[in-house]
Amino acid sequence: MSDEAEKAAYRRLEEAIEEVCRLEGFKGVPIEWVVIAASQWFDSEESFTQVGTLVPDGGGRVPFHRLLGLVDYTHARLRDVVTRDDD
Q1: Fewer CB within 10 Å, N side or C side of the chain?
Q2: pLDDT in tens, 49-60
Q3: Confidence at 87, pLDDT banded by 50, 70, 90
Q4: Using the 8-state DSSP alphabet, how is residue 61 labeled?
């Protein structure tokens, strides 16, 4: 992928995140974000899973300690939801 195509794709991703946040009722402007994505593909004999993170501009704009904080905080909130689930 060319550098310009990658930059354009990340701009569209950021615009989509801002739009979804607005639709979900977030207040203010998203200042930091991380997307965790998983994909799976199949070879003739095996299957493979890839998990990765997408960050603003492909990285560099948000320090790793801030990204880890976002992921850790979300992880803690999800664990709380799961432990409270009555099912």
Answers
A1: C
A2: 999 989 888 877
A3: low
A4: S
